[in-house]
Amino acid sequence: MEVDTSAESHQDAGPTEASDRGCPLEAIYHRCTDPYELPHFPAIERTEHHTVLYELPYQPHTDRPPAPYCSPRTPSATGGTLRLPTMARCMMRNADGSHAVENRWTLVCRALSKPIANSRQLEDTIVQYNPDYRAHGQFGALHRLFEEQCEDSEREAFFSGTLPRMVQLALRLTELFRTPVPLLVQQQNHAVSMTQEQAACLLANAFLCTFPQPKAALAKSFPGNNFAPLFAGTSQSVVEKIKCLCHYFRRVCTRMPTGVLTYERRCLGRNALPDWANLSACISTERVPLHVSPDGTIEDQGTGLLQMVFANRFLGGGVIGHGCVQEEIRCVINPELLVGRLLFESLRETEAYLVLGSERFSAYANYASSFAFDADHRDGTPRDASGRRQCYIVGLDALRVQPGMDQYEERALRRELTKAFVGFRYGLDGRRPAPGIATGNWGCGAFGGHTPLKALLQLMVACAVERPLLYFTCNEDGLQERLVRMYRFLAGRQVCIASLFRLLVRYGAKVRGKGGADDGKEQDLYDYLYQQLDTSSTSGSAPSSTSSSSTLANQL
User: Fold this and answer.
1) Which of 41, 78, 264, 273 is the 20 to 30 Å CA partner of 506?
2) Do 336 and 319 meet the contact criterion of CB atoms below 8 Å apart?
3) How many CB atoms lie within 10 A of CB 548?
4) Is 93 helix (H, G, I), strand (E, B) or coil?
5) 326 is in an annotated binding site
6) How are the residues of the chain apportioned to helix, strand and coil, as percentages rounded to the nearest 5?
7) Alpha helices in 405-474 (DSSP H)
8) Distances (CA, A) of 496 to 13, 279, 463
9) Global pTM?
10) CB neighbours of residue 36 within 10 Å
11) Enzyme group, top EC level (predicted)?
12) Is 130 one of the annotated binding-site residues?
């Protein structure tokens, strides 16, 4: 008679009713009464690896943004500096067909000095200093918004109020940036901190498309600076994203925020990464509390936690285009994230990006093609001692599963574990207890990842770094019950990370050996783990949590 090893047979894994979400939510916050009580990152300090573009120290009790920092010397920037519109020249065609080279900033100032009464005049202004955008239809979404979907009063308010203030803000570029802005390039650990006012100035220039086209050497590794590709969109979701950005500018141009932000790139060398096949840390409710929520969102319910963005290797993914899923939405409701598109080179396998302190300005409804700007949002997130909103975002790009690729292959598993480890580990500096992480179905959907696998991989990494995990299932049918049951099963048996990793590798080999397709793995992965771990538990015990912690400390 065949033994039933399905999930339903594992009563010792604990209750799995729809109401069961794993550990209580209080455990994710280490039972702190204030969700912001545990510190995440050290205070901002000007160092060789941290460029600060404003005067320190930050003065919290003032209604003015910090003053720009003027460096007595040019800071070292091994990866180069941001190419501002003030640093470029522009090839212009004269009336007689000849060409002349002019200073771009002179052209920008001249063009923007004239009144702009509607979106057609805005287009005409932009092409004066960026003639590459002269193609027909380049500003279709912008015209659709202001000519078809705006009330007369809204249009008047933007072109007579908000836009002139945006122009004034953009033209303060030379005043607000008194020192070069380093690029955050691959294989370099570096951070750039700036004021929200400086970020708004850069974004105003991006909206007005004043940045020069990137040099050929950088075009393939940086996503592009100007918002022109967004204006050229054709879908309604693109129009809604423009609404979010216009609302942001209305807010900051009416009352400029006085806080600061940090953009940081983190890279770990191979010798700093754990060997997942030999990591003896055990999954337990004490080491890695897990709370699984079938509803809610990372940005709304993940307060006080390190918040995961399911990133593209280029920050923002398709935000300046037709993309409109988790990362893109986060970028338009927290537009200061978009400054990272100017700074971050594309991510490599052992790298993550962090944006600390961004403020949310918009509420939204729906997702993907039905995404819509909904209303103004007033962000009540408190600031840390450095003046940053305590909104700490980590961006990790998942493996994009291509046809013929096996995400259960050992190399693919190691890649995802390593990527999550880089983001989950940073900022701890040995502090315990560590703040939790708010995450969800990372690398699923368009990237093709299997949700049960990606949930397990993130659980394994959270266990390795000893951080609680708040997991949002995005209402995926049955995932809450399956994940909580598996978590209770693994924690009840004190299964070590190495054992789980090796089982995932064996599972992939087993399915490949049968000629199975990826389509079947999502349904039977957990059943396979139940069967294998039930069998192994009869022949030996799991490593003790004490020896596990000691071994992990030596590896990390």
Assistant:
1) 273
2) no
3) 23
4) strand
5) yes
6) 40, 15, 45
7) 410-425, 451-465
8) 16, 7, 9
9) 0.91
10) 17
11) hydrolase
12) no
